[in-house]
Amino acid sequence: MKSSARTAALVAGAVAVLVAPVAALKAWSEPADPRISVGAPAPATLLPGDVRDAAGRMIANAVWTGLVSYDPETGAPVNAAAESVTSPDRRVWTVRLRPGATFQDGSPVTSRSFTGAWTAVLRERWAGSRLFTEVARVRGARAGEDGVPGLKVRDERTFEVALDRPLSGFPALLGDPAFFPVPESVLASRDWASYGRAPVGNGPFRVRSRNAREIVLRRRSGEGRSVAVRAMPDAKRQYTAAGAGELDVATLVPPDRHESMEADFGDRHLAVPGRDVTSLAFPARVERLSSPTVRTALSMAIDRSAVTEGPLGHQYSPADSLVAPGIRPGHREGQCRLCVHDSKAAVAALADAGGLKGPLNLWYETGRGDDAWVKAVAEQLGRELELDARPHPVADLREAVDSRQVDGPFVVHTTAAYPAPVAALAPLLDAGTGLDDEYATGLLAEAERAAAPDEGVVPARLAESALLRDMPAMPLWSRHDHLVWSERARGVTADAFTGLRLDRLTVAD
């Protein structure tokens, strides 16, 4: 070998020897994936008007900015895409948009971006349509129809929404994904399949890529880390991965690890109160169940904690109110004193009411995951009160209620559409109990038309007290979510209406 060639080879070898440890050290010190990773079941859809699961809601709130958002500390609505939402009578609302807002494709966010999107939700009969027809009750809103008389565009930044009756909570409702905007080009094309695969929103994140394994969200500003939402429906896998540092945030916790979260993660875990309540309601026309004393006896005979810690796997909290804990302001702890398990009081109350003879059917709908807990409640009623309580599944519970087939307590799942106590109580009026209490219904109507949301809290609480006294429905439990996270994750924040706040997530440097 010539001298020059030999010298070059020696230099190259020396460089390789020096570089190799540096490269190895860099590979060891840097995370394999610099993105922030979140585990969650795959969402059913990314169309905001059709969101129907927690994962979809979490992602939608990152990709879109609604007219309002929710303060994670107080639960109160705060203006976001809206500059103002005002009304002189709580019936006709004027929405004024912030100037200069654009979608992630650069197109402007206009009044038609909202009114057109809302019309599409109704026309396509998406999951959010009931919020327009049953909750907000926008004038002339009909599922399946192309056109809403209650929506009027005034200019590029101003539109009006007319409701069928005053609703002080209307601004709070506008934070739901059903009310998010859509670019006018998409509204014109109506190519919902393509838009659902790669949606364009007006929020802090845009969808960079999507496949069966993960949805990658990139920050619109270009600053900060991307977020990879990994399709991980198995709670045990999420929990293990977060503990090993292979996943930054787990949104599911397996039932058998509920008691060990603090030992496994220290202060890196969070319980997020929910906005739904599961109840057993009573058909008013069934005379032997019409006595409030009978109903309270049944309520006190149920050991809610035993069911939530058993068949429900620590994923629910025993109810102590008709208003779910995730609704702030409005929820008050300990309102349902008759929800506390008390065997002796239950037996005495049933005896005072003259007893309850014959089979007691517990009606519920198949396919909703209620089988195990309904069976457990039936066994408790049999053991505590010596009743012949029988689970009674049906394919369509609402049809059975409406056709007057139901002859016993029936399962009701209610979800507050916005953070206010009246939003939790109003669905009970439509549950099919046949409740005819002018005092309670009058108070709920007063809460809905209050001059300000805060002024509706007192009448709603009075209505709750009246409903708990007569107990047309006895609350059982409310679902809550659990989050655990790795040592490097920071900024983990969540609430009942938004879910995990992806825009607040960071990692330790």
TrEMBL record:
Residue ranges of the TM segments: none
Database matches in CDD domains: PBP2_NikA_DppA_OppA_like (cd00995)
Superkingdom classification of source: Bacteria
Record-linked Pfam families: SBP_bac_5
Keywords: Signal
Gene Ontology, cellular component aspect: ATP-binding cassette (ABC) transporter complex; periplasmic space
UniProt-listed InterPro entries: Peptide/Ni-bd, SBP_5, SBP_5_dom
Residues of the signal peptide: 1-26
SUPFAM superfamilies, sorted: Periplasmic binding protein-like II
Record domain Solute-binding protein family: where: 77-427
Keyword Transferase on entry: no
GO biological process: peptide transport
Residues in coiled coil: none
Name of the protein in question: Oligopeptide transport system substrate-binding protein
Organism of this sequence: Actinomadura coerulea
